[in-house]
């Protein structure tokens, strides 16, 4: 019988990509314990991702990229997270935003083209830094305290961003800033140069190797062309499905670990492995129900987004949010059940389950938050007309 993780591969081209990513995931899994223990950034993993062409996965073909779909992004991100959740989540912000920029064309075309060519030729990456200590998550609507003051030829930016994933490796990044003269907020593309400092603040329970440190800007000049001037279309936020894909990949790894344990562990009080025990089989069934339900929702949402007309994608926002809500919460449940099967040994730092347990909880704090999805669904239901 085919492995459960392969259930959503649709064709030979996707199968070839999953084989390539599975090889990377196995390599990353060997490095993950050290990066997790040290809280170090996995530069070695990103060198491998660049060599494999993964950084250009969602770059438009016109610039030499792969131009892969949201469904394929989800498929490969889940596989990558099976090996190392931190690396998958971190690179997911890059390939997800490249897909988002491709479909919305929210950046000036010349700036976007420059970025795409740098990704393909040099392995450049992008992320948007929006969170701040005072304003909290940008999804909550807080106004940034980072400011952009107009000057000759551009803007002077000053401020500090938190949760700046990929900060150790990026040579450019987008960020939000408040323009006092215009009383509005806009995004800017900042190149790493004098006045840009990374402060190593990322020391967390889980996802310890994402490099999500603070980034400080001290009177950094950003030229006029790199004010991104919010534009483009609304794509419904489909690119954010890279987040639930990551956490389901972690849950799948925990599930497979627990299954291997159940098939092979036989205490001397039993004549056969614990997989034969009704209680263990019941727990396995609970894992399967949670995991299969979440994956079905996730892949259906990704496929519907891909197939939808551009103008109709915003109408999928509730479905996309539901997919993330179910995936992250069910992933936590699956890891917990896997640890119940393995028992006290699952707490050992010599085994991966305790890392899965810590990493998977981070999904609750990635957008959209549970409360946001609940309010979205409630509002949608109440807005219906009889």
Automatic annotation (TrEMBL):
Task: Write down what this protein is called.
Answer: Acyl-CoA dehydrogenase
Has UniProt tagged this entry with the keyword Amino-acid biosynthesis?
no
* Record flagged with keyword Oxidoreductase: yes
Q: Which cofactor does it need?
A: FAD
- Alphabetized UniProt keyword annotations: FAD, Flavoprotein, Oxidoreductase
Instruction: Please name the source species.
Output: Paenibacillus whitsoniae
The Acyl-CoA dehydrogenase/oxidase N-terminal domain covers which part of the protein?
12-97
Q: Name one molecular function that GO assigns to this entry.
A: flavin adenine dinucleotide binding
For the Acyl-CoA dehydrogenase/oxidase C-terminal domain, which residue ranges apply? 244-362
Query: Which parts of the sequence belong to the Acyl-CoA oxidase/dehydrogenase middle domain?
Result: 130-220
Report the family membership. Belongs to the acyl-CoA dehydrogenase family.
């Amino acid at each position: 019988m085919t492995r459960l993780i392969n259930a959503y591969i649709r064709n030979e081209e996707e199968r070839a990509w999953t084989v390539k990513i599975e090889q990377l995931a196995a390599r990353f899994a060997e490095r993950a314990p050290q990066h997790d223990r040290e809280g170090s950034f996995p530069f070695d993993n990103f060198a491998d991702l660049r060599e494999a062409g993964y950084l250009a996965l969602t770059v438009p073909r016109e610039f030499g990229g792969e131009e892969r779909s949201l469904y394929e992004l989800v498929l490969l991100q889940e596989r990558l997270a099976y090996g190392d959740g931190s690396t998958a989540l971190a690179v997911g912000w890059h390939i997800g935003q490249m897909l988002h920029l491709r479909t919305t064309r929210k950046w000036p075309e010349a700036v976007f083209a420059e970025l795409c060519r740098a990704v393909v030729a040099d392995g450049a990456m992008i992320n948007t830094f929006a969170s701040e200590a005072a304003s909290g998550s940008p999804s909550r609507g807080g106004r940034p305290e980072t400011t952009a003051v107009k000057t000759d030829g551009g803007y002077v930016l000053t401020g500090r961003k938190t949760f700046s994933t990929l900060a150790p490796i990026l040579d450019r990044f987008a960020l939000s800033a408040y323009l006092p003269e215009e009383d509005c907020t806009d995004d800017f593309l900042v190149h790493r140069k004098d006045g840009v400092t990374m402060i190593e603040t990322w020391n967390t329970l889980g996802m310890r190797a994402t490099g999500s440190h603070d980034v400080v800007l001290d009177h950094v000049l950003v030229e006029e062309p790199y004010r991104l001037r919010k534009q483009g279309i609304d794509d419904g936020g489909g690119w954010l499905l890279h987040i639930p894909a990551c956490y389901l990949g972690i849950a799948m790894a925990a599930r497979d670990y627990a299954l291997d344990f159940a098939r092979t562990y036989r205490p001397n009080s039993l004549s056969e492995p614990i997989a034969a025990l009704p209680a263990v089989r019941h727990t396995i069934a609970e894992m399967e129900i949670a995991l299969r339900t979440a994956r079905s929702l996730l892949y259906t949402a990704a496929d519907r987004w891909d197939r939808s007309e551009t103008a109709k994608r915003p109408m999928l926002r509730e479905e996309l949010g539901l997919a993330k809500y179910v995936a992250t919460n069910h992933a936590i449940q699956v890891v917990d059940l896997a640890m119940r099967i393995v028992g006290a040994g699952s707490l050992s730092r010599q085994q991966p389950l305790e890392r899965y347990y810590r990493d998977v909880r981070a999904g609750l704090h990635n957008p959209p938050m549970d409360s946001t999805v609940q309010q979205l669904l409630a509002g949608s239901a109440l807005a219906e007309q009889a």
